[in-house]
Amino acid sequence: MIAPGSGWRAGADVSRPDDTVLHLDELQYLLGEGPSVDAIRQRRNLVAPDLASDPRWPRYGPEAVAGGARAMLSFCLFTEQRMHGVLNLYADRAHALGGATERLGQVFASHAAIALAAARDRDQLRQAIHGRQVIGEALGVLKEREGLTSEQAFEVLRKASQDLNIKLRELAAHVAYTGEHPAEMTGTPSLQPPGRPARSSPIG
């Protein structure tokens, strides 16, 4: 993210702000040093008023200055549950990121952390719902094919998951896609549908 009033404007060609910021972010992880890397390690916000003279990052500092960044702020994205990442602010002038800019960055960081946490929760919920659907389809296949109850079909899946050292959801997806009984499997299942729909019956 580029700080307001930093002197960088959108619309340039190769050195567009998004390209510059992406390069500066990636450079820290390639070098293993920089404000963002230390913020993650130390789990605290970090300020770099002048990267040209800051002794904490002897390799990243000169590279960042050469790339157009003189000052930087790294904000940890925290919620009560976890740390979600880091928000970086850059400026092309030394000492350009204090005071009001730092306070504004903290507001952005707080909102970004909440948004990331909500997105991650939604993704986990979607995965859980999908997992239950796939397991239900696999149970339906086994019940129809073997005449099992829901409890018996689930026990077949559970035991096969342990014996084959395969996650239950992955095993269920294979059974649902192929109709293959777990006892007939000899290796790691393919999770790609083979071109025919899974057989299923209501769970009951």
Question: How does this model look, in words?
Answer:
The protein is mostly helical. It folds into 2 domains: 17-98, GAF domain (Beta-Lactamase), CATH 3.30.450; 122-184, Arc Repressor Mutant, subunit A, CATH 1.10.10. Helices cover 50% and strands 10% of the residues. It has a 3-stranded antiparallel sheet, sandwiched between helices. β2 (71-78) and β3 form a beta hairpin. α4 crosses α5 (150-164) and α4 (100-146) crosses α6. The protein is elongated, with a radius of gyration of 26 Å.
What is the strand and helix layout of this fold?
Blueprint: H1 17-31, H2 35-42, E1 46-48, H3 60-66, E2 71-78, E3 83-91, H4 100-146, H5 150-164, H6 168-178
Question: What is the strand arrangement across the widest sheet?
Answer: 1-2-3
Q: Give the low-pLDDT segments.
A: 1-16, 189-204
Order of helices and strands: HHEHEEHHH
Biggest sheet overview = 3 strands, antiparallel
Total number of domains: 2
